[in-house]
Design a protein that fits this description.
about 375 residues; alpha/beta; seven-stranded mixed beta sheet; four-stranded mixed beta sheet; 13 helices; binds pyridoxal-5'-phosphate
Length: about 375
């Protein structure tokens, strides 16, 4: 049997895979089993932020693996503590909890909001307001937080305690928090899976203001937008708002599974011994890699992410066959005139891998993608969209 046939036989069919078998990568380039080379503008869904086989990151992970790859959270280990410190220094937030994925980070944020609501406001203040068309993950509570019926339909009943509001309608948001007893507002600043739709400055500030006036926590899901993706360390930093909880995953690990929940001053003391935990969370090898990632996301590096993103967006904005371009930094959504799936297939034939988000072509290239690859990829995207 071929690998493709074995996949059909042995792997649960939850993914509609592209017909490409990846075998090796280097920087922004990846090769398939037939020896074709691609420029990868998806980076494992925003995970490989320094591209494939980044030496410095891999050395950091490997050096730690040769010492202690895993220890339980019953003991102190250096990388997890150093990573928590680095994240606190970078954000001004106070404490970190580590887990293994974005959905898990959101679960922890949800548990924290419920405990905070119960202790601070009363047991009935457990609702969390999320936005219609948002995405927060696939576990049952994260699914309930995800304001998209298509993800819910086969998995009812949903975890209770979530109410939804339309993005960009501050009055509607305020109505929802008035009508329900709420603990928190939770949002992505750019709805990634929802189609790379950035929230306006005005709405994010209004949401923060509503949270303040109604004594709610503000939770920002930075799983996709975080770790430098939008040109700031976290995307909330574009808006001048101060979240009480930030969730992070994807690019933070640089290629290994990590989730992180960052707590501000109002939430740092909510989770107490025994209230939450994770066997693998804070894994030393993973945290050593993430520490390397955080250390390299300097202001100069982030300014370069902004420059690259602006270049790509300006190249694509008025291109033939492109209806609109949205996003920020190196998180970009292109609405093509042709179906996005057809554009992706043509891009593959031309040696470019990209992603889909709803009816858009989504680009999440490695943040250190060389200018030459960016220029080459932009030319191919323009050619394919104009077809
Ligand atoms: C990908 C994503 C998640 C889920 O992360 P997993 O690591 O797949 O669990 C949650 N929130 C947002 C905004 C995401 O983009």
């Amino acid at each position: 049997m071929t690998i493709e046939e074995k996949d059909k036989t042995y792997v649960a069919p939850t993914y509609a895979r592209f017909p490409v078998r990846l075998v090796r990568g280097e920087g922004a380039h990846v090769w398939d089993a037939d020896g074709n080379r691609y420029i990868d503008l998806g980076s494992g869904i925003g995970v490989n932020i320094f591209g494939y086989a980044d030496g410095e990151w891999a050395d950091a992970v490997y050096a730690q693996m040769k010492k202690i790859a895993h220890a339980s959270n019953l003991y102190y280990t250096d990388p997890c503590v150093q990573l928590a410190e680095a994240l606190a220094v970078r954000t001004g937030l106070k404490k970190a909890f580590f887990c293994n994925s974005g959905a898990e980070a959101n679960e922890c944020a949800i548990k924290t909001a419920r405990k905070w609501g119960a202790e601070h406001k009363g047991a009935e203040y457990y609702n969390i307001v999320t936005l219609v068309n948002g995405f927060h993950g696939r576990t049952l509570a994260a699914l309930a937080a995800t304001g998209q019926a298509e993800y819910h339909k086969d998995f009812l009943p949903l975890t209770p305690g979530f109410v939804y509001a339309e993005a960009e309608d501050a009055d509607a948001l305020e109505r929802v928090v008035t009508e329900h007893k709420c603990a928190a507002i939770m949002l992505e600043t750019i709805q990634g899976e929802g189609g790379v739709i950035p929230l306006s400055d005005k709405f994010v500030r209004a949401a923060a203001d509503i949270a303040k006036r109604h004594d709610l926590l503000l939770i920002v899901d930075e799983v996709q937008t975080g770790a430098g993706r939008t040109g700031k360390f976290y995307s909330y930093m574009h808006y001048g708002v101060q979240p009480d909880i930030v969730t992070s995953a994807k690019g933070l690990g640089g290629g290994l599974p990590i989730g992180a929940v960052l707590f501000g001053g109002r939430t740092e003391g909510v989770l107490t011994p025994g209230t939450h935990g994770s066997t693998f969370g804070g894994n030393p090898a993973v945290c050593a890699g993430a520490l390397n990632v955080v250390g390299r996301l300097t202001d100069a590096f982030l300014a370069d992410v902004t420059r690259k993103g602006d270049f790509l967006m300006s190249e694509l904005e008025d291109a033939a066959g492109v209806k609109s371009v949205t996003g920020r930094g190196l998180m970009i959504g292109i609405l093509p005139e042709r179906p996005a799936g057809d554009v992706l297939a043509d891009l593959r034939r031309e040696g470019v891998l990209a992603l889909k988000a709803k009816d858009k072509v989504r680009l999440l290239p490695p943040l250190n993608i060389p200018d030459g690859d960016l220029v080459a990829a932009a030319e191919i995207i323009k050619k394919v969209c104009a077809k």
